């Protein structure tokens, strides 16, 4: 865990069970670890997520952020709250909240702007929000999408950076994360928990999908 973290913010995560230890987790990125940041536990508590989003919005000049963009699903909630707190500090105009989503085709893994949201991106200053950064892959897609539509990305604000993600990983955009954790993660082939046959957690993370894929491959 990063010693520079604000203890009060870390405690907010812990109080709602958003930091889970001592199990065998599979992340969305495919990497394995014994620690999991359960963002879904945060979303259950509107007061907690509201307060955290206030902190996410704080470093930015409200008058210089036109639109907050988050990737589905958690980013939808974050974009709403962060835009709300930016609007509380604006001297004129309004900060909008939109989201990027993936295609309905399970093979389509790329983000896009639907519902006409692309019309609010061109020539605007965009703040990208995310709950948990592991590899930065999803956020990088959103950054590229915003730029494709002519938007200017002014920053990335996240609840948690658990993968040591750096600006170079996300299109050279400055990252502000409320908390950062230095978590040891492993590829499947090098995972010590797999080697020791530690059961995979199927309640949190992507463990259930991982096991289903292994079964389909006859492993």
UniProtKB/TrEMBL annotation:
Enzyme Commission numbers on file: 2.4.2.10
Matching InterPro entries: OPRT, PRTase-like, PRTase_dom
GO biological processes: 'de novo' UMP biosynthetic process; pyrimidine nucleobase biosynthetic process
Domain Phosphoribosyltransferase: 51-168
Protein's recorded name: Orotate phosphoribosyltransferase
Residues where 5-phospho-alpha-D-ribose 1-diphosphate binds: 102, 130-138
Subunit structure comment from the entry: Homodimer.
Gene name for this UniProt entry: pyrE
CDD domains, alphabetized: PRTases_typeI
Keyword annotations: Glycosyltransferase, Magnesium, Pyrimidine biosynthesis, Transferase
């Amino acid at each position: 865990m990063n010693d520079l973290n604000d203890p009060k913010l870390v405690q907010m995560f812990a109080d709602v069970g958003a930091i889970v230890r001592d199990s065998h987790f599979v992340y969305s990125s495919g990497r394995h670890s014994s620690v999991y940041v359960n963002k879904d536990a945060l979303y259950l508590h509107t007061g907690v997520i509201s307060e955290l989003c206030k902190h996410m919005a704080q470093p930015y000049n409200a008058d210089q952020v036109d639109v907050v963009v988050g990737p589905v699903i958690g980013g939808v909630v974050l974009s709403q709250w962060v835009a709300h707190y930016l609007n509380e500090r604006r001297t004129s105009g309004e900060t909008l909240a939109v989201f990027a989503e993936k295609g309905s085709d399970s093979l389509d893994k790329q983000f896009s702007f639907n519902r006409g949201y692309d019309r609010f991106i061109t020539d605007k200053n965009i703040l990208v929000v995310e709950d948990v950064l592991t590899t930065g892959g999803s956020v990088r897609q959103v950054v590229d999408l915003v730029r494709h539509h002519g938007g200017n990305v002014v920053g990335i604000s996240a609840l948690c950076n658990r993968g040591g993600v750096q600006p170079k990983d996300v299109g050279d955009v400055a990252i502000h994360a409320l908390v950062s954790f230095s978590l040891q993660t492993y590829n499947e082939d090098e995972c010590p928990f797999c080697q020791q046959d530690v059961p995979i957690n199927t309640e949190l993370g992507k463990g259930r999908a991982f096991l289903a894929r292994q079964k389909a491959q006859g492993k």
